[in-house]
Design goal:
The complex is a heterodimer. Helix content of chain A is 85%, strand content 0%. Chain A is mainly alpha-helical. Chain B starts with a helix and ends with a helix. Classes of the chains: A mainly alpha, B mainly alpha. Chains A and B meet through helix 1, helix 2 and helix 3 of A and helix 5, helix 15 and helix 19 of B.
C-alpha cells in the first residue's frame, strides 16, 4: 500500500512537472526564442564562411521564421491572459522576425 | 570469409537501429540541452540491446525459430495477438517517422520540401523490397551507412575535453530541469530498444541460415554491430554538446541539428549530415516494413522470406506493400517528423514488456534453445529491461501528454 502511495506521489509529481503555469510558459518561450536567435546567428556565420549551401541556409531561415512566429503567437495569447513578461518578449520576437526577413532578402 | 560476411547482419541492424530518426533527434536534443551528461543512457541502452540481439540470434541459430514464431508456439495465438497488434501499430508509426526522416534528409540536401520527396522515397523503398534479396538490403545499406562515421570524425576534429566526455558515462542528476533530463534519458532508451529490431534480427539470422556453429559469430555480430551503431549515436550527442549547447541552441527541428557538422567539416558538413540521416532512416524504413511482414507471417503461419519469389509468399509481400503505402500518407500530408517520432518512442516503451517478457520464458526453455539457455546475467539484463520499460512508460507518458515534452 505504501509503495502504491509512493508510486502515485511520484506520478503526480511528474504530472505536475508537465502541467506548467503561464510564468513557466513565458520562460520556455524565452529559451526557444534565444535558441532560434542563436541558430540564425550560427547559420549566418557559417554561410559567411562558405560552409553552408545556399538552399540549406534558406531552409534554416524558413524553419527559424516558422519557429519564431509560433512563439510570437503563443506570447500574444499569454499577454492577452495577463502574463506580464509576455508582451515585451513578443516585441523581441517581432524584431527577430525582421532580422530573419532581412537575411532572407540577402539570399536570392 | 563466410563469418566475416555475417558481420553485415549486425551492421545493418545497428545502422538502422541507432542512426535513424529517433536516435538522431534524441541524441542531438540531449547533447544540446545537457552536454555530455546523457552519454550513460546510450551506453546502458546499448548494453541491453547487445544482450537482447544476442538472444534473438541464439534463438534463431539453435532453435530455428524467429522470435514471433517461438512466442506464438509457446504461448498460443491468443497471447500472440497482443504483441502482434502492438507491433503493427508501433511499426507503422515508426515507419512513418523513418520515411519522414529520409525525406527530411533529402530536403536538407536540396532545399525542396520533404513532402515532395515522400512518393519517390516510398517507391524506391517498395521496389527494393519487391525486387531485392535480403543480402542486397543488408549489405547495400551497411556500405552506405558508413557515411554516418562523419559524426565520429567531427567529434575528433572539434577537440573535446576527453575527461569531460568520460564523466558523461557516469549517471548524475542535473542542477536544473530534472524532468526534462529524465524524459530525454527515457527517450534515448526507448529509441534504442525498438522491439522491431529483435524480431528482425532473428528473422534475418534464419534468412542467412545460421546454425549452432554460428553462435560465436552471433556474439561478435551483436557486439560489434551494436557497438558501431552506439559509437555513432554517442558522436551525434557529442557534436551537439560541442556546437549547440554552448550557444544555447535547442533542437526543435533537424535544421538546427544539421548545423553541427559544418562547424567541424566545413562545406561537406550539411551534405554528410543529410546523407547519414537519409541512409539511416531509409535503411530503418526497409527493416520496419520487412519486420511487419515477418511478424504477420510468423504469427499467422504464412510462407515468409525476403529471398522467395513474390508469387510464393504473396501475403508476405502484400503486408510490406500496404505498410509502405500507409506509411507514406502522413508524410505526404505533412505530419511533423519530430512529433511522430516522440509518439512512436512513447509507444515503444509501452510495448516493450509485452515483447520481452515472453522472450525471456522462451530463452529459458530447453525445447527452444536446448543447452544454450540464458545465464543469470542474460536473465538479469532482460528483467532490467522489462522493469525499466514499465517505469519508462509510467514516466514518459504523463510527461508527453501533459506537455513536459
Amino acid at each position: 500500500m505504501r509503495r502504491l502511495a509512493l508510486a502515485a506521489l511520484l506520478l503526480g509529481a511528474f504530472a505536475g512537472a508537465g502541467c506548467r503555469g503561464d510564468g513557466e510558459k513565458v520562460a520556455d518561450a524565452r529559451k526557444t526564442l534565444a535558441s532560434w536567435e542563436s541558430t540564425v546567428r550560427l547559420a549566418a556565420a557559417q554561410r559567411q564562411a562558405n560552409a553552408l549551401p545556399k538552399p540549406f541556409f534558406r531552409d534554416v531561415l524558413r524553419a527559424a521564421r516558422e519557429g519564431v512566429e509560433k512563439e510570437e503567437r503563443r506570447l500574444d495569447r499569454l499577454a492577452a491572459k495577463g502574463a506580464e513578461e509576455a508582451s515585451p518578449l513578443a516585441g523581441q520576437a517581432r524584431a527577430l522576425l525582421g532580422e530573419i526577413d532581412a537575411l532572407r532578402a540577402s539570399v536570392p | 570469409m563466410k563469418n566475416l560476411l555475417k558481420l553485415g547482419l549486425g551492421l545493418v541492424t545497428s545502422i538502422a537501429g541507432f542512426i535513424e530518426v529517433g536516435s538522431v533527434s534524441t541524441s542531438a536534443q540531449a547533447g544540446a540541452e545537457f552536454g555530455f551528461s546523457l552519454l550513460w543512457a546510450i551506453a546502458a541502452a546499448t548494453l541491453c540491446l547487445i544482450t537482447l540481439c544476442e538472444m534473438s540470434g541464439r534463438l534463431a541459430a539453435v532453435g530455428k525459430h524467429p522470435l514471433a514464431a517461438a512466442v506464438r508456439e509457446r504461448f498460443g495465438f491468443r497471447y500472440q495477438v497482443i504483441p502482434l497488434g502492438a507491433e503493427i501499430v508501433l511499426d507503422t508509426l515508426v515507419l512513418v517517422a523513418e520515411l519522414a526522416g529520409a525525406c527530411i534528409g533529402l530536403q536538407l540536401l536540396s532545399g525542396v520540401s520533404y513532402r515532395v520527396w515522400a512518393l519517390p522515397v516510398a517507391a524506391v523503398a517498395w521496389l527494393l523490397l519487391w525486387r531485392g534479396h535480403f543480402s542486397v538490403i543488408e549489405n547495400g545499406v551497411s556500405a552506405l551507412g558508413l557515411v554516418s562515421l562523419a559524426f565520429v570524425v567531427a567529434v575528433v576534429k572539434l577537440h573535446p575535453d576527453w575527461s569531460e566526455v568520460a564523466r558523461g558515462f557516469v549517471p548524475s542528476a542535473p542542477s536544473t530541469d530534472l524532468a526534462r533530463y529524465g524524459l530525454l534519458a527515457v527517450s534515448i532508451l526507448g529509441a534504442t530498444l525498438s522491439p522491431y529490431l529483435l524480431n528482425f534480427y532473428s528473422s534475418g539470422a534464419i534468412e542467412d541460415k545460421w546454425t549452432a556453429k554460428d553462435l560465436t559469430t552471433n556474439r561478435v555480430v551483436a557486439g560489434i554491430g551494436m557497438g558501431f551503431g552506439s559509437t555513432v549515436s554517442m558522436a551525434v550527442l557529442a557534436v551537439s554538446a560541442l556546437v549547440l549547447a554552448p550557444r544555447g541552441i535547442r533542437v526543435d527541428g533537424f535544421q538546427q541539428a544539421s548545423l553541427t557538422l559544418p562547424a567541424a567539416l566545413g562545406r561537406a558538413g550539411v551534405p554528410l549530415f543529410a546523407a547519414a540521416l537519409t541512409v539511416g532512416c531509409f535503411g530503418a524504413a526497409l527493416e520496419v516494413a520487412l519486420n511487419l511482414s515477418y511478424v504477420m507471417a510468423q504469427s499467422l503461419g504464412w510462407n515468409w522470406g525476403e529471398d522467395q519469389r513474390p508469387l510464393d509468399d504473396a501475403r508476405f509481400c502484400t503486408v510490406y506493400t500496404l505498410a509502405v503505402l500507409i506509411g507514406v500518407l502522413p508524410v505526404l500530408a505533412g505530419a511533423p517528423p519530430l512529433s511522430v517520432t516522440m509518439i512512436a518512442m512513447a509507444l515503444t516503451v509501452l510495448v516493450l514488456p509485452f515483447v520481452v517478457l515472453p522472450f525471456l520464458v522462451v530463452m529459458n526453455d530447453p525445447r527452444y534453445v536446448k543447452t544454450h539457455r540464458n545465464g543469470w546475467l542474460g536473465n538479469a539484463v532482460v528483467v532490467l529491461v522489462i522493469v525499466g520499460g514499465a517505469l519508462m512508460a509510467l514516466i514518459v507518458i504523463p510527461l508527453e501528454v501533459l506537455g513536459g515534452g
